[in-house]
Amino acid sequence: MPPLAGAELIQTPVQLYRHLLRCCRQLPSTAMQQHYRHAIRQGYNSHSDEDDPERIRMIVQRAITDADWILDKYTKKK
Protein backbone atom coordinates (compact mmCIF):
# COMPACT_ATOMS: atom_id res chain seq x y z
CA MET A 1 0.00 0.00 0.00
CA PRO A 2 1.40 3.46 -0.82
CA PRO A 3 2.08 5.86 2.03
CA LEU A 4 -0.83 7.86 3.33
CA ALA A 5 -1.59 11.06 1.47
CA GLY A 6 0.17 14.01 3.07
CA ALA A 7 2.52 11.84 5.13
CA GLU A 8 5.57 13.26 3.37
CA LEU A 9 4.67 16.76 4.61
CA ILE A 10 4.75 15.87 8.31
CA GLN A 11 7.60 17.65 10.08
CA THR A 12 6.45 18.21 13.67
CA PRO A 13 4.89 16.02 16.37
CA VAL A 14 1.71 18.12 16.33
CA GLN A 15 1.35 17.58 12.57
CA LEU A 16 1.82 13.86 13.13
CA TYR A 17 -0.77 13.82 15.90
CA ARG A 18 -3.37 15.56 13.74
CA HIS A 19 -2.58 13.35 10.75
CA LEU A 20 -2.98 10.16 12.78
CA LEU A 21 -6.29 11.36 14.24
CA ARG A 22 -7.52 11.99 10.69
CA CYS A 23 -6.43 8.48 9.70
CA CYS A 24 -8.58 7.06 12.49
CA ARG A 25 -11.65 8.27 10.64
CA GLN A 26 -10.92 5.71 7.91
CA LEU A 27 -11.26 2.77 10.31
CA PRO A 28 -14.46 0.77 9.89
CA SER A 29 -15.96 0.76 13.40
CA THR A 30 -16.42 3.37 16.09
CA ALA A 31 -14.83 1.08 18.68
CA MET A 32 -11.65 0.78 16.60
CA GLN A 33 -11.57 4.52 16.04
CA GLN A 34 -11.83 5.18 19.78
CA HIS A 35 -9.18 2.57 20.58
CA TYR A 36 -6.62 3.99 18.17
CA ARG A 37 -7.43 7.62 19.10
CA HIS A 38 -6.68 6.71 22.70
CA ALA A 39 -3.44 4.96 21.69
CA ILE A 40 -2.37 7.99 19.62
CA ARG A 41 -3.08 10.34 22.52
CA GLN A 42 -1.11 8.15 24.94
CA GLY A 43 1.84 7.92 22.55
CA TYR A 44 1.85 11.67 22.06
CA ASN A 45 1.77 12.30 25.81
CA SER A 46 4.50 9.77 26.55
CA HIS A 47 6.88 11.31 23.99
CA SER A 48 6.04 14.97 24.63
CA ASP A 49 9.37 15.56 26.37
CA GLU A 50 11.51 14.39 23.42
CA ASP A 51 13.89 17.10 22.26
CA ASP A 52 16.34 15.19 20.05
CA PRO A 53 15.44 15.99 16.40
CA GLU A 54 16.76 12.63 15.16
CA ARG A 55 14.68 10.70 17.69
CA ILE A 56 11.59 12.75 16.78
CA ARG A 57 12.18 12.00 13.09
CA MET A 58 12.44 8.28 13.87
CA ILE A 59 9.22 8.36 15.91
CA VAL A 60 7.39 10.19 13.10
CA GLN A 61 8.56 7.69 10.47
CA ARG A 62 7.63 4.72 12.63
CA ALA A 63 4.18 6.13 13.43
CA ILE A 64 3.44 6.72 9.75
CA THR A 65 4.57 3.18 8.87
CA ASP A 66 2.41 1.73 11.66
CA ALA A 67 -0.61 3.78 10.55
CA ASP A 68 -0.17 2.51 6.97
CA TRP A 69 -0.05 -1.07 8.25
CA ILE A 70 -3.13 -0.68 10.46
CA LEU A 71 -5.21 0.94 7.74
CA ASP A 72 -4.08 -1.68 5.24
CA LYS A 73 -4.98 -4.45 7.68
CA TYR A 74 -8.52 -3.26 8.31
CA THR A 75 -9.39 -2.06 4.82
CA LYS A 76 -8.35 -5.28 3.07
CA LYS A 77 -10.97 -7.28 5.00
CA LYS A 78 -13.80 -5.62 3.08
Write the layout of secondary structure elements.
Layout: H1 13-24, H2 30-46, H3 53-75
Helix pairs in contact: 1-2, 1-3
Organism: Seriola lalandi dorsalis
Pfam families: Complex1_LYR
Domain Complex 1 LYR protein: 12-68
What is the CA-CA span between the terminal residues? 15 Å
What oligomeric state is this?
A: single chain
Q: Please tell me how large the radius of gyration is.
A: 13 Å
List SSEs in N-to-C order: HHH
Can you summarize the main beta sheet?
none
Class computed from helices, strands and strand pairing:
mainly alpha
Q: Globular, elongated, flat, extended or rod-shaped: what is the shape?
A: globular
The overall pLDDT, averaged over residues, is: 88
Ranges where pLDDT stays below 50 over 5 or more residues in a row are: none
Beta strands, count: 0
Count of discrete alpha- or pi-helical segments spanning 4 or more residues:
3
Instruction: Estimate the strand proportion.
Output: under 5%
Describe the structure.
This is LYR motif-containing protein 9. This protein is mainly alpha-helical. It has a domain at 11-23 and 52-72. Helix content is 67%, strand content 0%. The protein is built from three helices and no strands. The model has no long low-confidence stretch (mean pLDDT 88).
